[in-house]
Amino acid sequence: MSAVEARLAELGLTLPEVPPLAAYQPAVLSGSYVYTAGQLPMVDGQLPVTGKVGAEVTAEEAKALARTCALNALAAVKSVAGDLDRIARVVKVTGFVASASDFTGQPGVLNGASELLGEVLGDRGVHARSAVGVAVLPLDAPVEVEIQVELLP
User: Fold this and answer.
1) pLDDT at 1
2) Structure confidence at residue 20 (pLDDT)
3) Rounded CA gap, 48 and 43, in Å?
4) What is the pLDDT of residues 61-75, one digit of tens each?
5) Exposure class string for 45-58: b at 16+ Cβ within 10 A, else e
6) Those residues with Cβ within 8 angstroms of residue 114's Cβ, 6 or more apart along the chain or in another chain
7) Is-contact 145 70, C-beta < 8 A?
8) Residue 32 in contact with residue 149, Cβ under 8 Å?
9) Are 87 and 77 in contact (CB under 8 A)?
10) What is the three-state SS of the chain?
11) 128 has pLDDT over 90
């Protein structure tokens, strides 16, 4: 077990399986970088909650969902990198929040993803980030997260 996966286990977390996709890959390795596709907060192939944040979904629920998205993104990274201990650093996190028209707390929602990456990777999890409010996401998901990771040689 890698040190990163041991840390996940200490936190009571397990990397999910990365499902095969249709017209795109969950993650792509290019040089020393891994770029993930947008990760929904899927748990066992299902969305636990759907709807807009600030309407059907609370900001705290969405923050927890962003955490799940980040865990799914780490699984996608592992699927192409082979070992999460190869992560030199998380370079960028981009998060999308399906938002009610008056919801402006997107950065707080995305803290769920950022905090998980910090808990798991320490200083290697510190990153730049964008938090974007959108009208709707695939499958009516409340949040979607993608990450860019630099790997060690």
Assistant:
1) 75
2) 74
3) 7
4) 999 999 999 999 999
5) eebebebbbbeebe
6) 70, 93, 125, 127, 129
7) yes
8) no
9) yes
10) CCHHHHHHHHCCCCCCCCCCCCCCCCEEEECCEEEECCECCCECCECCCCCCECCCECHHHHHHHHHHHHHHHHHHHHHHHCCHHHEEEEEEEEEEEEECCCCCCHHHHHHHHHHHHHHHHHHHHCCEEEEEEECCCHHHCCEEEEEEEEECC
11) yes
Mean of pLDDT over the chain: 96
pLDDT above 90 for 21 = no
Residue in the block written with tokens 């699984």: 75
Residues 127, 149: contact at Cβ < 8 Å?
no
Distance CA(68)–CA(47), nearest Å, equals 10
What are the tens digits of pLDDT across the range 87-127? 999 999 999 999 999 999 999 999 999 999 999 999 999 99
Cα 93 to Cα 129: distance, rounded to the nearest angstrom = 5
Residue 68: both structure tokens together: 């799940």
Residue 15 to residues 23, 29, 73, 112, Cα–Cα distance (Å): 23, 19, 9, 16
